[in-house]
Amino acid sequence: MFKFxxxxxxxxxxxxxxxxxxxLDNFGGFFDLIGHISLIMLMSVERVFLAxxxxxxVIAVGILGWKILASVWKGVLFSILxxxxxxxxxxxxxxxxxxxxxxxxxxxxIIGIPIGIIMAWSRTVETIIRPILDAMQTxxxxxxxxxxxxxxxxxxxxxxxxxxxxxxxxxxxxxxxxIRGVPEDVVxxxxxxxxxxxxxxxxxxxxxxxxxxxxxxxxTTMMAxxxxxxxxxxxxxxxxxxxxxxxxxxxxxxxxxxGLSIVLLAIVIDRxxxxxxxxxxxxxxxxx
Amino acid sequence: MSEMxxxxxxxxxxxxxxxxxxxxxxxxxxxxKNDDELKKTGCVAALRDITMEIERGEFFVIMGLSGSGxxxxxxxxxxxxxPTKGSIVFAGSDVVKLNKKELIEFRRKKAAMVFQNxxxxxxxxxxxxxxxxxxxxxxxxxERLEKAETALETVGLKGWESYYPGNxxxxxxxxxxxxxxxxxxxxxxxxxxxxxxxxxxxxxQMQDELVELQDTVKKTIIFVTHDxxxxxxxGSRIAIMKGGLVVQTGTPEEVVTNPADDYVxxxxxxxxxxxxxTAGLIMEDPDLLLYRWEGPKTARHLLKKSKKEYxxxxxxxxxxxxxxxxxxxxxxxxxxxxxxxxxxxxxxxxCTIDTTLEDLFPVATNTSYSVAVVDDKGRxxxxxxxxxxxxxxxxxxxxxxx
Lengths: 288, 402
Known about the structure:
The complex is a heterodimer. By secondary structure, chain A is mainly α. Chain A is 85% helix and 0% strand. The radius of gyration of chain A is 22 Å and the shape is globular. By secondary structure, chain B is an alpha/beta fold.
């Protein structure tokens, strides 16, 4: 038997630990601040969702579905799906989950879209960022739950942070792909008429990349929802927590109800954001 | 034309693609006579030592097959492609030396380009597309939309303002492209194969309209094409490119009747002389020209002496009055007239010096006399006998047979 020589071992674990320690020692205050701000954001969003009466949200989603998908029946269907969640007694938990998802998605968009744009502009930046995105998507989420926990403590903030890390890659990638996919001649024409880089970005690239970016937003939202259960492991209240509890107590029925609620929420959000990206195609993508 | 300052003056322009073309010295580039030598340095030359001048108001056509460097050349003029060496003096300033800010300003105000694939914004209406160049300049919305509307009217798209480009046919999309370029009122219009994507019928129609358009807007146009017929039809001068070199520059007539080398000859082989050769080129002074003040009697005498059946009659100012024949003269003389009177047949075939042979055919076949060539004031310039049209048509082939 050939054993791998011990002399070649890399003490990666030690390094990461000491880096983590150094970060905590030196930038602890900084992360406290970020954590604090995030918490305020999360709490306010959550409060808003909990403050709105359930029927207002049900009706609003119904109307939204009707308008965006141009079908009354789909609007009604969405309303019914949300009512089912309520009938399980999970309305408040669903709203808490939604608050975390929406906050992390919005953060992901604010940070992800500009990164995607810069990636589309510069090959160098792309070469650097692409492997990082791969790592973010393939690294088991538990691995970065631990440092998130150490930086932000238990609760919603590390959950939102982990959700952000997991969910941001699609919107970055698809923004980059979308902008790269804008026909070269249209960009050239814009240049020929004396457009500056920003004029090209806002008049040409972003509008034409819109369908692709919308798909990115849809994917990012779906990924964020997928993180719900994992996030609850570090103390984020919501539907995920319910699933986790029923696993621990082996309560199949309760787990099914909570799981189904997540699925229903996901369906409604997916269909709505997906329809938005299709709408974009109709106006922006019909060029020859 | 030659007294005027050229609007664009290109001197020793080079574009070399490849690794570190800037490292090549001036002499090195000049000494590379063929691609193989350049390729050793890992470079390909798209433009080699181009020198040309384009006059104000000219319709200048750059023609060549794909890979000849014609598209690269038109792009270097506004530095969509950065030239490697050389200078492009545009209305007094060297485009190559402009910094980023000046270049943007230059592109906004001086030149506008029309693209082969129209390159319109699909998410904007026709009107907004036409106003695009003005928007980039920072013009207020109301003003720019007004100007764009005028431009759309010029290209015949009135009423289509609120449509999206995707709903328009190729020809109409390209009209929007032209309107977008005209709206900024540029000094020079660059057109990169604008009609290549259109079907032949629409293409011909667009070409006709473009010629008319240039007559009204009086812009300098630089037009790139791979289509010889298009080049001959549109250009007041044509530059023929091959492998990054300009092999010949001249008027359509010069290019067709006197190709500079075998490459051009091969190119223009299929060109029908009927479309290029004009009446002015083949007309001749008539053997006999009658003046009105000479009267019918003298006229009859002169006709008999020169053994002709008929002759053109002009006024003192050489204005063409018509044709008179021996028979008609005999008739009026019998009636005792001293003026030409009825003996002049005013219903005769006329053309101008710009009329091409193609257009001369129907004119010549509908008359039993020669075709008279007149200027815009109706003055007689020369005559064209039907036989001369045929001679001009088959002149080249006869030469080849020899």
